[in-house]
Write a structure and sequence with these properties.
By secondary structure, this protein is an alpha+beta fold. Helix content is 50%, strand content 12%. The chain contains 14 helices and seven strands. Strands 1, 2, 3, 4, 5, 6 and 7 form a seven-stranded mixed β-sheet that branches. Helix 3 runs antiparallel to helix 6 (123-152).
């Protein structure tokens, strides 16, 4: 910015720098923001298992499987070492502990509310089964509720939460608007994260000369069509997310920004404008206007963020269909084995 006395007032938010402060008067900040990165998740995700896997995190399935295995082993230990089956009355009635296969089938079947016919005869075994069923009722109720929510409500998530996660993406290009405060900060900063971002931008510039383009629309076009990330003011990026449903803003933010209006240096209007802007801030109008016009998920045009139930597509039920096919295949194999065993005997 050069002092040419051609402009009396800049009525657009301008970021503060020391060089600009030497040739212009910055009025009190009208908006505080940060810089962030917008990108499109190009890795994609398989939906084959989404219907069955979405209700719980993988840790819940791991703990559930370990619990099932532990209860099976505990049940067998209780039944096989229980003196109840060694009593004369039990031997007369031919009562025996449940076998391994029957135990596994009963406890596993209970997870899908099927149960079985081989109930334990001992009191200790029945108590264990009773509390196991209490656990299963709670878990299946939670699974069923989450399954309904997962099938009817689409969640917008991404696998990237930090700059380190995004930097691991192969052949990722990073762009930034040239001539901005952020551009100058990245070029001169000694912060380790910003230096790493600068290296990524320099590597991107070797293969794409538009990474410093002055037009944000060019960068957003690259985000939508290439393996590209755009570093820019969070406030403007949120406007892009509102209308572009396949892009995400990284949670990590860098370089805080103070946006101000500018007057020529030593302008007689500086004090008057500064007082009025301060008054507007004190009565809360700045925050009110920001809340009114700032885009949020509630007023987004993206269908994935609309309230209410969504039609369930066939791709979301692929896991259920695969599970059904696997069950039919397993039952057919069991039937074949039974026929072979019967024929051989």
């Amino acid at each position: 910015m050069r002092k040419t006395q051609e402009i009396d007032f800049i009525a657009a938010p301008v970021g503060y720098t020391w060089e600009r402060d030497q040739v212009a008067d910055f009025l009190p900040a009208i908006h505080e923001s940060y810089n962030g990165m917008i990108f499109r998740d190009t890795r994609g995700s398989s939906k084959l298992l989404s219907a069955l896997a979405d209700p719980f995190r993988w840790q819940v399935y791991a703990v559930g499987g370990a619990t099932l295995l532990g209860v099976i082993l505990l049940y067998l230990a209780i039944e096989w070492n229980n003196p109840f089956y060694q009593e004369a009355t039990s031997e007369a009635k031919r009562l025996k502990p449940t076998g391994v296969l029957d135990t596994v089938m009963y406890l596993f079947g209970s997870t899908v509310h099927q149960g079985g016919v081989h109930l334990p005869e001992s009191s200790s075994g029945r108590i264990l089964i009773s509390f196991w069923w209490m656990y299963i009722i709670v878990m299946t109720a939670a699974y069923s509720g989450n399954l309904i929510a997962a099938l009817t409500v689409t969640r917008k998530t991404t696998a990237f939460t930090s700059f380190d996660d995004l930097f691991e993406v192969a052949n990722l290009k990073i762009g930034i608007m040239g001539g901005t405060v952020l551009h100058e900060t990245i070029e001169t900063s000694n912060d380790s994260l910003i230096m790493e971002i600068r290296e990524k931008i320099e590597a991107s510039e070797e293969i794409d000369k538009d990474v410093h383009n002055h037009n944000p629309a060019v960068h957003m076009e690259k985000v939508m069509t290439e393996n590209y990330a755009f570093l820019h003011d969070i406030t403007e990026l949120e406007m892009f997310v509102k209308i572009s449903c396949d892009v995400y803003i990284l949670k990590d933010k860098i370089v805080p920004l103070d946006h101000s209006l500018l007057l020529p240096q030593d302008s007689p209007l500086t004090d008057m404008f500064a007082k009025e802007i301060t008054r507007v801030q004190e009565i809360g109008l700045m925050e009110y206007w920001l809340r009114k016009w700032k885009p949020t998920q509630n007023n987004s045009t993206c269908p994935s963020l609309e309230k209410g139930a969504k039609p369930v597509g066939l791709e979301r039920l692929a896991a259920a269909l695969l599970a059904l096919g696997a069950g039919i295949l397993c039952s057919g194999v069991c039937l074949l084995v039974e026929l072979v065993v019967k024929a051989s005997t």
